Amino acid sequence: MRIISRFLFVSLALVLFAACRSQREKVVYLQDVATFDREVITKPYDVRIEKDDILNILVSSTDPELSAPYNQVLITRAQARAGYAANAGEGYLVDSRGYINYPILGQIYVEGMTRTELEKEIQTRIISSGYIKDPTVTVQLQNFKVSVLGEVNKPGSLDIKGERITLLEALGMAGDLTIYGRRDRVFVIRETNGNREVLQADLRKADLLTSPVYYLHQNDVIYVEPNEKKTQMSEINQNNNVNVWLSVTSTLVSITTLTITIIDKVNK
Q1: Which architecture, in CATH terms, is 54-141?
Q2: Does the pLDDT of residue 162 top 50, yes or no?
Q3: In angstroms, rounded to a whole number, what is the distance separating the alpha carbons of residues 137 and 150?
Q4: Which residues of 112-149 are buried (b: 16+ CB within 10 A; e: fewer)?
Q5: Contact, 249 vs 13, CB < 8 A?
Q6: What is the pLDDT of residues 195-243, one digit of tens each?
Q7: Which of 25, 121, 165, 241 is deepest in the core (most CB within 10 A)?
Q8: Which stretch of DSSP H or E encloses residue 129?
Q9: To which CATH superfamily is domain 31-45+144-230 assigned?
Q10: Which of 115, 198, 122 is nearest to 164 (CA)?
């Protein structure tokens, strides 16, 4: 009988270990990263300008008076009430054809360009006009944002100050996935050149690092799918669910201990 009691105890331990291992395989990121070969980044990812982007463009030179006509006028509220243009100083909107309307230079096709390419394009045009010999052009994207929905701790829109962000960084800014989020079913909804596509990422796999969604595009929408348990127990919050599992585990341990005690008494 003592052998039976030990068998029951070992069996329970194995069941609990298997359950823990199974959960670990579902939630741990980049599980096979040890097999991932080093990737040489030959060219850093550059954000491409798209329709409906808003660009902040500043032209400067050794003579501020010469560069002033190429810049938007920054106005006060009092000036706005007096009739100044409402969109002055608010950036250049890329229209539905991919153009911006730039002072003096007129319309410039910018869709598909990187920030650096547009800076060189404007600089070349200004120099060619013969008006300024030494212009410095700075282009920034004003509306670079991504949205994170689903099973994350802080869903919402994220305003990106830089010009590059990865999927993992965006999820980190959203507070990471909840315990209910499926690491193997993270979707990125993306619009490019008038086409909308849905891309899937598996955070558990190292090939995420070479995935087309590793670097995010402006206006990407990230959706983390809930797991089956969350779907079935949508009315139970995370803390209560943990308590349920702890209660079940405690009950199983108590039953096993009681069974072992009874069996030992019978043996005596």
Answers
A1: 2-Layer Sandwich (3.30)
A2: yes
A3: 40
A4: ebebeebbebbbebbeeeeebeebebebebebbebbbe
A5: no
A6: 899 999 999 998 898 899 999 999 999 999 998 887 776 655 545 555 6
A7: 165
A8: helix 115-129
A9: Outer membrane lipoprotein wza domain like (3.10.560.10)
A10: 115
